[in-house]
Design brief:
341 residues; Udp-n-acetylmuramoylalanyl-d-glutamate--2,6- Diaminopimelate Ligase, Chain: A, domain 1; UDP N-Acetylglucosamine Acyltransferase, domain 1; 11-stranded mixed β-sheet; 5 helices; flat
C-alpha cells in the first residue's frame, strides 16, 4: 500500500512524499519500505536514527524530510495501521473431511473447520467462523458470527459465544465449577448444570478457564478482554469492557461492573461486587466489595493511597525497629533510675 492509501483507510493526514509501504516494524528495526510508530517521547532518540520509510507520530514530533502519518492518538491509530498489514493465521477454507461434525449440528455455509476438530450434536455455528485443529465444540453450543477458535480450545456443552469472539489456544469454557458438599464419607460433587455465556467482541487468551454456572450462567460482558492463564469460577458475572490480566483468579458468584481492571495475579474472593471502573493492582487480594471508581492494592487490599504509603514505609522498617529498641532501652533505664530515687 502507498502511504496515501494507508492514511485514507485510517482517516489520517500525512506529510512528506508518498511512498510504497510493505509492512510495519519498530523504529530501531524498520527499513525503507516499512512504517514505524513513535508511541512515547521516551523514543525520540530512536526517531532521530530510524531508517524507516515512514513514521506514525504526533504532528509536533514529525521529523523534517521523513514521510509521516500524523496522529493525535498514536497508540490507537497504530493499532489500525497494523491491522491493515496483519496477515490472518490459517491456510484453509471449508470443512475438512478429517473433522467430525455431528449430523445434527448446523454450520453456516462459509464456516471453516480444520482437521481433527469436533462439533457436537445440535451445535449452531454462525457465518465466518473459523475452528482450528483439535477444537472441541460440545453439544448445544451456539457460536455467533466471525468467531475464531484457535487450536485445542474446548467449549463444553451449552456454551454460548456472541459475535466476533476470539478464543486462543488451550482455553476451556464451560468446565465444571468447583462445587462439593461435605459428608462423613468425604466430598460429594454438586453437579454443575448451568452454562457459560460470552458477549460480543470478547477476546480470551491462551490456557484460560471459565467455569460453567452451578444452575444458571457464568457471563462475560461485551468487549471484555481476558489474558492468558486466567481462572473465572462458576456464576461470575462481568460487565462490559473489563480488562482481566494474566493469572487473575475470580472466585464464584463475584460480580464485576463495567470497565473493571484487574492487574496480574490479583485474587478476588467469592460473592463480592466490584463497581464500575474499579482498578485492582497486581497481586492484590480482594476480600470485600469495592465501590465504583475505587483503586485498590495490597493483600488484603486497601485503598490505593494507603497501599502506596505502606509500600514506601516497608524499606524503613529495619531502621524503625532499631530506633524502637533504643527507645525501649532508654525507657527501661529511666524507669530503673526513677525507682532508685
Amino acid at each position: 500500500m502507498r502511504l496515501s492509501e494507508v492514511a485514507g483507510k485510517v482517516g489520517l493526514t500525512f506529510s512528506g512524499h508518498d511512498i510504497e509501504l510493505e509492512g510495519v516494524n519498530t523504529l530501531v528495526s524498520a527499513g525503507e519500505g516499512q512504517i514505524a510508530p513513535l508511541l512515547s517521547r521516551n523514543y525520540l532518540g530512536q526517531l532521530a536514527e530510524t531508517r524507516a520509510g515512514a513514521v506514525l507520530c504526533e504532528p509536533e514530533h514529525a521529523p523534517h524530510g521523513l514521510p509521516c502519518l500524523l496522529s493525535a492518538n498514536p497508540k490507537l491509530d497504530w493499532a489500525r495501521v497494523v491491522t491493515l498489514f496483519a496477515k490472518p493465521q490459517g491456510c484453509l477454507t471449508g470443512v475438512s473431511p478429517q473433522a467430525y461434525v455431528h449430523p445434527e449440528a448446523t454450520l453456516a455455509a462459509d464456516t471453516t473447520v480444520y482437521p481433527f476438530a469436533f462439533i457436537g450434536a445440535r451445535a449452531i455455528v454462525g457465518p465466518g467462523v473459523v475452528i482450528f485443529p483439535g477444537v472441541y465444540v460440545g453439544e448445544d453450543c451456539v457460536l455467533g458470527s466471525n468467531v475464531t477458535l484457535y487450536p485445542n480450545c474446548v467449549l463444553m456443552a451449552g456454551t454460548i459465544l456472541g459475535d466476533r469472539v476470539t478464543v486462543h489456544a488451550g482455553t476451556v469454557l464451560g468446565s465444571d465449577g468447583y462445587g462439593y458438599a461435605q459428608s462423613p464419607a468425604g466430598h460429594v460433587k454438586i453437579p454443575q448444570v448451568g452454562h457459560v455465556v460470552i458477549g460480543n467482541d470478547v477476546e480470551i487468551g491462551a490456557n484460560a478457564a471459565i467455569d460453567r454456572a452451578a444452575l444458571e450462567a457464568t457471563r462475560i460482558g461485551d468487549g471484555t478482554k481476558i489474558d492468558n492463564l486466567v481462572q473465572i469460577a462458576h456464576n461470575v458475572q462481568t460487565g462490559r469492557h473489563c480488562l482481566i490480566i494474566s493469572q487473575v483468579g475470580i472466585a464464584g458468584s463475584t460480580k464485576l461492573g463495567n470497565g473493571v481492571v484487574l492487574a496480574g495475579q490479583a485474587g478476588l474472593r467469592d460473592n463480592i461486587t466490584l463497581g464500575d471502573g474499579v482498578q485492582v493492582a497486581a497481586q492484590s487480594g480482594v476480600g470485600h466489595d469495592l465501590p465504583s471508581g475505587a483503586i485498590a492494592g495490597g493483600s488484603p487490599s486497601m485503598d490505593a493511597a494507603t497501599f502506596l504509603r505502606v509500600g514506601l514505609s516497608l524499606p524503613k522498617l529495619p531502621e524503625l525497629m532499631r530506633r524502637v529498641r533504643r527507645l525501649e532501652k532508654a525507657l527501661e533505664a529511666a524507669e530503673k533510675e526513677s525507682g532508685r530515687e
